[in-house]
Design goal:
Blueprint (H helix, E strand, L loop, with lengths): L2 E14 L2 E13 L7 E6 L22 E5 L3 E6 L10 E7 L3 E6 L2 H13 L9 H4 L7 H4 L5 E6 L3 H6 L3 E7 L3 E5 L6 E6 L6 H4 L10
Antiparallel strand pairs: 1-2, 1-7, 2-3, 3-4, 5-6, 6-7, 8-9, 9-10, 10-11
Length: 215
């Protein structure tokens, strides 16, 4: 049987007539287990009404035809999106995958980011002797347990820019007061930083330009 880690209402950003719109959705997050792969299932709830309260009845459920499946193994990074204008009482974040970037807004954004990072970026143990030992807990991992608020593990994609900057592999992305910082995952030392004033176009192109980064 699939193990549901978390589910709830949120908004998925799309484009309609050339403008950004928020589509009401329902997200179900499944843990990786012997019964199934770790994944997110996004359901379009535009025709269900009353999404953002607590009034979605299980019996009415989302339409299967509107389901979108995102494998946790395809996730590259999950980062806050403070520059996005989103529905009332919601906060936005970017879900970067191997195929595309999703912009999501949820009432409990920090909670969603935490649980998504836990399941998408945790390391599995080698054996499946017991349920407790199957998957590594973030609290038991010295690196993860020292993370502060607004810090997330990211994987640098291989591009001409990353090669010029000589960065590859996994790092810690930290949302600071004045800039986004790329930190060494083990030591916490700052590798690069991008001042927010240079990130105006990030919400459109989803790319951090290395020419604005400073050591």
């Amino acid at each position: 049987m699939d193990v549901i880690s978390k589910e709830g209402p949120l908004y998925l950003q799309g484009v309609k007539f050339g403008k950004k719109v928020w589509r009401k959705s329902w997200l179900i997050l499944f843990e990786p287990s012997p019964a199934g792969i770790g994944r997110m299932e996004l359901y379009d709830m535009r025709d269900r009404g009353g999404l953002m309260g607590s009034a979605i009845a299980r019996t009415s459920g989302p339409r299967k035809a509107d389901k979108r499946v995102i494998r946790l193994t395809d996730c590259l990074s999950i980062t806050p999106a403070p520059g996005e204008s989103c529905p009332t009482d919601c906060s936005a974040f970017f879900l970067n995958t191997t195929s595309c970037t999703y912009t999501i807004a949820a009432p409990t954004q920090e909670d969603w980011i935490t649980i998504l990072c836990q399941l998408a970026f945790q390391k599995t143990q080698g054996t499946e002797d017991t349920k407790k030992d199957k998957y590594t807990s973030l609290a038991d991992n010295e690196i993860y347990s020292t993370w502060g608020a607004g810090q997330f593990q990211v994987t640098v994609q291989s591009t001409d820019a990353s090669q010029r900057c000589r960065v590859s592999g996994s790092y810690l992305l930290s949302a600071e007061k004045e800039a986004i910082c790329l930190l060494d995952l083990k030591t916490g030392q700052a590798i690069y930083q991008w001042p927010y004033r240079h990130l105006r176009r990030f919400g459109q192109v989803k790319v951090l330009q290395e020419k604005y980064a400073t050591l």
